Amino acid sequence: MPLDCALVKENRKIPPATVKRLPLYLQCLDQIDSDSIGISSKNLADLAKVNDAQVRRDLSYLGTLGTRGVGYDIKTLRNQLQLELGLVEGWSAVIVGVGNLGSALAHYGGFKDKGFGVVGLFDDDPKKINSQVAGLVVTPLSKMEEYCKKYNVAIGIIATPGEYAQGVADQLIDCGVRSILNFAPVLLKNVKDVQIRSVDLSQELQILSYYLDRPILKAVD
Amino acid sequence: MPLDCALVKENRKIPPATVKRLPLYLQCLDQIDSDSIGISSKNLADLAKVNDAQVRRDLSYLGTLGTRGVGYDIKTLRNQLQLELGLVEGWSAVIVGVGNLGSALAHYGGFKDKGFGVVGLFDDDPKKINSQVAGLVVTPLSKMEEYCKKYNVAIGIIATPGEYAQGVADQLIDCGVRSILNFAPVLLKNVKDVQIRSVDLSQELQILSYYLDRPILKAVD
DNA sequence: GAGTGTGAAAACATTCACAGCT
DNA sequence: AGCTGTGAATGTTTTCACACTC
């Protein structure tokens, strides 16, 4: 056995469909009154509005967390979910575009609660530069690289109008940001090793609209 | 054959996974320069970053829209997508909660472009009542029923803090609103015949976070 | 008895590959 | 030759159902 034999991180692969539900389970646990100590897959399934076998299958990817005949310990479960989602690393994020949406995101307490720290707000509008939003000073984009290096920023949140979004994305990637959450209604170019998630408000409304005139059909996320 | 024999609307059922991509295709078509007249499944697939067989399969649910050896006519395709998504009905929407997020939504032009009309803004904060946002007057929630009846509001958009969201949802449903787009970070109760879609900003970030420390894994929407 | 963990089945979604039309 | 529409193959996700543990 060679000396440099490393401790190989076990690479359990969690299916994408499951990953999407893990934050949901975490949210459900937050909504339980704090004196409860355990929860069954059926209980959790009812809260999350999914099938109970689904919950058990999903959680089984994280390891053997439950106790047969008893259920899951809430504290353990929460810790494991946070660990698996990478919420204990304390990732830093910046928000680019400090309009109404950017401000809303800057004020949104849910990020801090979940372990994300917003460390910078960027905008090139002279009227906004140097103003304070949610306790942070709005900074021009030219300072972004400096900031990203200094705080080791992992996540960039784009809340600019559509026409600036691709340029901002390119700049973020240049600054070493490997994950982007995009709220601008444009399709960003894929870049190797960079994760891009887009949330398009109007697309959500359009999906809703499809199910609007057909009350028989059932929507699925 | 009875006199009241009705013209039965053919009930082609479109798979949920396809419905989620239709707005994406529509967005891709919008990004094409206006002098193009046709497009192939391969072209559209590249824009939408999906497989070309996927595009053909998805579009085939809308009918036989393409021409073998040629491709799809952009205008026809756009019309058909809009028709299928119910974007030609001109649904009316109201926004409840006029904080930063609500204001962002009210200003967001993408809704009007896509056929949705925001006809009311509601908030119970005395400081906001009667102020103007995006050309609309902020109105107290007590007037909501009157408004919803008057404008036949189909869609309610919830942009309040989490603690008010369920109450607002109940009220919207009482007012006859059958579709809700919820931005508050809480799980709303399911109600029969009411479509609820939730967009949770912090959940999106958590999903991104999962893929952050594992550059090998590939994220899928 | 209650409730997990998981094979096996069923349902759903994607992709291949090609016949058939222009 | 170029490109659609779609059976068939493959891959993924959900659900059932039950052996097993507490």
From TrEMBL, chains A, B:
Please state where this protein is localized.
Cytoplasm
Sorted alphabetically, the keyword list is: Cytoplasm, DNA-binding, NAD, Repressor, Transcription, Transcription regulation
Ranges for domain CoA-binding come to: 87-187
Which GO molecular function annotations are given, in alphabetical order? DNA binding; DNA-binding transcription factor activity
Positions of NAD(+) binding: 97-102
Alphabetized SUPFAM superfamilies for the sequence: NAD(P)-binding Rossmann-fold domains (SSF51735), Winged helix' DNA-binding domain (SSF46785)
Its GO biological process annotations read: negative regulation of DNA-templated transcription; response to redox state
InterPro entries named in the record: CoA-bd, NAD(P)-bd_dom_sf, Rex_actinobacterial-type, Rex_DNA-bd_C_dom, Tscrpt_rep_Rex, WH-like_DNA-bd_sf, WH_DNA-bd_sf
Show the GO cellular component annotation of the record.
cytoplasm
Describe the function of this protein. Answer: Modulates transcription in response to changes in cellular NADH/NAD(+) redox state.
Subunit notes for this chain? Homodimer.
Which family does the record assign? Belongs to the transcriptional regulatory Rex family.
Concerning NCBIfam families, the annotation shows: PRK05472.1-3 (NF003989), PRK05472.2-1 (NF003992), PRK05472.2-2 (NF003993), PRK05472.2-3 (NF003994), PRK05472.2-4 (NF003995), PRK05472.2-5 (NF003996)
**Name of the protein in its database record:** Redox-sensing transcriptional repressor Rex
User: Upper taxonomic classification of the species?
Assistant: Bacteria, Bacillati, Actinomycetota, Actinomycetes, Candidatus Actinomarinidae
